[in-house]
Amino acid sequence: MRPLFHPAIEDVAPQAILHALSDPARAAIFARITQAGCVNACSAVSALGDRVIPKSSLSSHIKVLREAGLIRCERNGVEMRNHSRCAEVEARFPGLLAAILNAYAGSDAPGAGTP
Questions:
Q1: How many structural domains are present in the chain?
Q2: What are phi and psi of 33, to 5 degrees?
Q3: What confidence score (pLDDT) does residue 36 get?
Q4: Considering the entire predicted model, what is its pTM?
Q5: Residue 39 near residue 72 (C-beta atoms within 8 A)
Q6: Helices 96-105 and 24-36, interaxial angle, to 10°?
């Protein structure tokens, strides 16, 4: 298996974060991972309300979040553990994540807000 790419926090760009969280589904997935601290299975974040994200789309969303520097993924057997890098990102860009997630929480976008 190929190693997973995780950017160093110094290489995380605000543009990448904004792009990653521009999708309401990705913002909701990130909010769930952040609230849980660590999600042992991707299927734990696949349901957004009454809608279930297909595995292929979920993998793509997780990859975008990981490559933007928002989450850290580690393989554990056949599962992936997804950890939030919220504290690291907050230290580098104070208030950015809270502002974005609060904006989604107040919107009517499907899958938006914190679960």
A1: 1
A2: -65, -40
A3: 76
A4: 0.83
A5: no
A6: 110
